[in-house]
Amino acid sequence: MLKEQLKGKNIVITGASGGIGADIAKLCAANGANLVLLARSIDKLEQLKLTLEQHQISVDVFQLDVSDTDRIKEVFEQILMKIGHIDILVNNAGFGVFREAHEAPIDEIKGMFNVNVVGLMACTSMVLPIMRERRFGHIINIASQAGKLATPKSSVYSATKHAVLGYTNALRMELDDYNVQVTSVNPGPIATNFFNIADEKGTYVKNVQRFMLQPEYVAQKVVESMLTKTREINLPRWMNMGSVVYVLFPRLFERIGKRVLNSK
Ligand code: NJP
């Protein structure tokens, strides 16, 4: 995939140490973009940096836990000092834990909201002034199909992704006059390490294995959307049809789809 507009652009990716974040980074590098990669696992970021630098681009890495908003401010100030501006922010860091609401410890609920929602908003806040001033930029928020259609055992995770979509939709309208694009990405299950935490027992992975998306494919769709007016990316398409029907006929959908919706 060749995307000429990405050459020389400054792209920041949170949660870039693995999964789709790392695959997005690889594709951006292959297209000549300069990268800033953020995650907690600094060793993995350093390793990735070595590979990506073969593309004759600049790669900076910073250790960042996005639940630490003070650290977000510190890191983004350093980034802006070093590279001047950010063209594209990919808010990708996130995690889920599948369990029923009555079993979810309050610290886990807070932790998930702090990473998936507050962290994403805090990173976004750091790029908004400069993107608005330059009248240029793209914010890509990795949400989920779970942000459109909640299912049993994903009450908290779904709630975080619903919050991401609400925020993203409002942001898009706020930035419409500033030539700053805002895209949400709503995938179904992707074959990444996500399930090591989310699905400890492996029940969900076993049930959805046959239609799991490959991270490279999701990354390709995300990178193709960069600097375009893509509103949202829904993968796989047929799964998004489920959330469309759900909005129209929620009661019927919950009744008929009960067995499928209970796949966790
Ligand atoms: O998962 P994984 P994915 N601060 O576990 C980082 C969404 N999604 O690529 O900090 C900063 O391989 C972590 O890095 P590290 C999902 O909700 C997924 O699948 O070093 N970074 C790693 O790089 C998430 O928003 C599926 O541990 C933190 C990355 O995040 C996004 O896709 C389906 C962090 C996670 O990589 C990427 O997930 C769906 C923190 N506190 C949506 N915590 C799916 N896989 O099925 C984690 O609909 N990270």
Round the Cα radius of gyration to an integer and report it. Answer: 18 Å
What best-fitting shape do the alpha-carbon axes yield?
Answer: globular
Q: What share of residues are in beta strands?
A: 5-15%
Largest sheet: 7 strands, parallel
The CATH superfamily name is NAD(P)-binding Rossmann-like Domain
Organism: Neobacillus cucumis
Protein name: Oxidoreductase
Keywords: Oxidoreductase
Family: Belongs to the short-chain dehydrogenases/reductases (SDR) family.
Provide a compact summary of the structure.
The protein is 50% helix and 14% strand.
Task: Describe the secondary-structure layout.
Elements: E1 10-14, H1 19-30, E2 34-39, H2 42-52, E3 59-63, H3 69-83, E4 88-91, H4 106-134, E5 137-142, H5 155-174, E6 180-187, H6 194-198, H7 203-208, H8 215-225, E7 232-235, H9 237-248, H10 250-256, H11 258-261
Parallel strand pairs: 1-2, 1-4, 2-3, 4-5, 5-6, 6-7
Helix pairs in contact: 1-8, 3-4, 4-5, 9-10
The structure holds 5-hydroxy-NICOTINAMIDE-ADENINE-DINUCLEOTIDE PHOSPHATE (NJP).
Residues 14-21, 39-41, 64-67, 92-96, 115, 142, 144-146, 187, 189-190, 192-194 line the site of 5-hydroxy-NICOTINAMIDE-ADENINE-DINUCLEOTIDE PHOSPHATE (NJP).
